[in-house]
Every structure is written in C-alpha cells, then in structure tokens.
User: Fold this.
Amino acid sequence: MKQQASLTKSETAITRQGSNNLLKRFFAKYGAAYLMLLIPVCCFAVFSLYPIMWALKYVFYFYDGFNQERFTGLINFQRLLNDQLYWQSLWKQALFAMKILLELPLAFVLALLLHTRLRGRNFFRAVFVMPFILPGTTIAMVVYILLNPYNGGINQLLQALGLIDRPIDFLSSGWMAFLSGMLLDAWQNFGINMLFFLVGLSSIPKEVYESADIDGASGWKKIRYISVPMMGRILQIILFLSILGSLKSIGPYLILTNGGPNNATEVTFLFIFHQFFGGESGSNYGYGATVAVVTAIFLLILSVAYFKMTRRMDYH
Assistant:
C-alpha cells in the first residue's frame, strides 16, 4: 500500500511538473501577444462596454445629472414614440448622408487622376487630404465667419464677382443652412476617401491594364471592367464607412447652427447631444440614453443589411 501511495504521489508530481512546463512554454511563446491584446481589451471595457451598460441601465430612469435618479419604467420609450422632433431628425440624418453622392464620386475621379503619372501628384494628394487632417471644429468656426452676412469673405467675393446684389445670410434659412453643412462635411472628408481609392487602384496588377491596352480597351472600359470590379472589396468598405460615418455624425451643425434655425439642422446625433447636455427642456440622461440605444439598434440593423446586400461586391 505504501509503495502504491508513493507511486501515485510521484505520478502526480510528474504530471504537475509537466503542466507547469507546458504553461511556461505557452506564456514564453504567447505571453507578449496576450499582454498586447490585454491593453485594447481593457480600453474597450472602459470606454465602450461600460458606457453601453450605463446607457442600457438609464433607459429605464429619469436622471438629470444633479438629483437622485428615478425609475420610470418604459416612459422614455413612450416619449420617444411620440417625439416628432426625433423622427424628423432621423429623416434629416438620412438626408445628410446623401452628401456621399457628391463626396465619393469626387474622391474616385481625383484618385483616378492622381493614380497616373501626373506631375505634382504628391502635392495634390497632400492638399486634398489637408481638410481631413485639420480639426473639424476649427474648420467649422472659420466657415462660420466666412458665411457671415455682414463681413464674411464669401459674401464679399460673390458681390465682387457681381453674382449677388446684397449679402446672403446662409445660416438663417433652413435649407440653405442644411446644404451648407452638407457641402462643408463632404469637402472635409473627400480627401481620405480619395486615399482609400488610391490604395484600391494601386492593388490592381499593372499587367491587367497592359493586357487591356493590347486588346484596345478605352479608358472608360478599363475603369468599368477592370478598376471598379477589382476594387470591389475596398469599395464595399469605403461605402460602409462613408454611410455609417454620415449616419452617426453631427456634421458641422453644432458650430454652425446648433440645430437651428427652427430645428432645421437638428440631425439625430445632435438631438442626442442636446438631450444629454441641455436642450430646450434641459438635460435628461435617461431619455438621451433611450434615443441613443434605439438609434444604435437602427444602425446595427442597417449595417447587417448592408453587408448582406453587398456580398457580391467581393470580387475575389
């Protein structure tokens, strides 16, 4: 019996030592990789997971940031269903996203031009990307000054060219203020999309174009039958980033109009901002969280639908 017990202890010790050695080899091989992964995982937990959990909790509460929170059940959802300003803001957000109809074709055409051996192409690339690099709030403030009807540079230029008789107050009219924000945002973002298109064009083998030249293909046919199909995967990503980025953006409206005039530029995420940080009825974190969660669900459904609808864009 003693011998058997001694043998069992020896086997257990050998097994434990083997496990320890295996763990040491595992951490020696993968320890640094897991440590590097731990940092973004912690950041995700702190900056993404915690806010999501916080928002999910407060959809059932009234909380203004000062007084004690109060459980209200589904009242925030009932309010949301009857909030015409929110539903109008969704429509305006979708309309704001239409700016990609100007932004992406412009970026693609410029990418085609700068993908050639054009002299000074690196200079033009830097110039076109510059609006994206500069802080958006700074650009919006500069444009706000330029659009000033009294001494703004744009009005002075238009009057000097004889295009207008008197100054235009661009930001006092609903549609004109909305259109000004769309154009400004498209101008700020077309440069980065141009870079994405350039990456896609650079990934196409030159031999394909050389074969097309031998076959006598015109420039338009090469774009239609080579460039666009072979950029399918990156086109899918560019479109997704542009659509989603537009649908979750407040654009330059916080600086230009703060949602005015008469809520004409109150897009959805500016509406959410006002719920959190004080709108006409004051701050209500609970209602702001409810609007944010419902809008996030809409965007999630849209994202899944987009990837299902664009599966054929993956050329490979």
